[in-house]
Amino acid sequence: MLKGRSLIDPMDFTIYELDEIFNLADQIIANPQEFSHLCDGKILATLFYEPSTRTRFSFEAAMLRLGGQVLGFSEPNSSSTAKGESIKDTIRTIACYADIAAMRHPKEGAPKIAALSTDMPVINAGDGGHQHPTQTLTDLLTIRSVKGSLSNLTIGACGDLKFGRTVHSLIKAMSRYENVKFVLISPKELKTPDYIKKEVLKKNNIEFVEVEKMEDVIGSLDILYMTRVQKERFFNEDEYIRLKDSYILNEDKISLAKEDMMILHPLPRVNEISYEVDDDPRAYYFKQAKYGMYARMALIAKLLGVI
Ligand code: CP
Fold first, then answer.
1. What's the CATH number for 10-132+291-304?
2. CA of 266 to the centre of ligand 1 (A)
3. Please, which domain of life does this record's source organism belong to (predicted)?
4. In testing the pocket of ligand 1, which one of 123, 135, 170 has its CB within 8 Å of the most ligand atoms?
5. Tens digits of per-residue pLDDT, 88-121?
């Protein structure tokens, strides 16, 4: 039963609950009109303390396409946060006006504090370099729709695996499916955090390797999940400049890949995928962004208990 619950971490829902969400998303994709009044009279609040294009717009589009309404802020200085109001007081106030909230915050754990402060469902829309569970719903729905299954996959994650919260959430979520292997491609400065390797990969006996060179492994991958070097998490700008173009996926490199390898990216991209790759049939990142709206439509409907 998902009604009334929050989504803070990708492991908050069982794989059966995730299937409920994905099955509903499939139905919405097949017949969106049938669901266009599901959330009539309901309000989604979007509380974005950090910049966003896809997550905020797809949440808002999701609620509007379900017949509901949206309110919120994309600039925290326009809210009473600027006067020193706590997250706890903000969310308790928002719960007086809205039925469900999506929160993005630069501090790890902020959406969890919000969820613990209210009975209203709260969705983590990305907290610092920690987790991004609705990006993971997006990623899993995209993979399931294209590959037909979430099992028996070799997934290459490439780029900033240290600060890239989408990869942390993806590894956690995929660790529960059968015969999934990870190839972690990053410079040594941006390696996957130890807690993910120890508490997720090793604990669940998930096969993984860490490498620095993409060309050596791209031919073995079913999915290549590219990520941006997360400028906003660096303390030292020189270090960011040195590392930002560590990987640039181009036609030469994808000529080494399988014919059916999926290229995913949570976006935004900076330089890590050349524009020439966009026309390759293996490039799914803009379709992925669209799946994100359907995944969020299904999530909102399930958490509100309207279906
Ligand atoms: N994928 C993602 O979180 O994109 P935005 O930062 O644009 O929301």
1. 3.40.50.1370
2. 7
3. Bacteria
4. 135
5. 999 999 999 999 999 999 999 999 999 999 999 9
Distances in Å between the Cα of 48 and the Cα atoms of 2, 53, 162, 299 are 24, 11, 23, 18
Instruction: Say how far apart CA 172 and CA 299 lie, in whole Å.
Output: 19
pTM (two decimals): 0.96
Query: CATH 3.40.50.1370 spans which residues of the chain?
Result: 10-132+291-304, 134-288
CATH of domain 134-288: 3.40.50.1370
Residue where the block lists tokens 């059916």:
260
Q: Nearest to residue 267, comparing CAs of 138, 140, 154, 178?
A: 138
Lookup: tokens for 55: 């997550």
| Ranges assigned E (strand) in the chain | 43-48, 69-73, 100-105, 122-127, 153-158, 180-185, 208-211, 223-226, 262-264
Give pLDDT tens digits for 205-238. Answer: 999 999 999 999 999 999 999 999 988 888 889 9
Q: Is the CB of 4 under 6 A from ligand 1?
A: no
Contact 132, 126 (CB under 8 A): yes
Q: How far apart are the first and last CA of the chain?
A: 11
Cα–Cα distance for residue pair 260/193, rounded to 1 Å: 29
- Side chain identity at residue 196, one-letter code: I
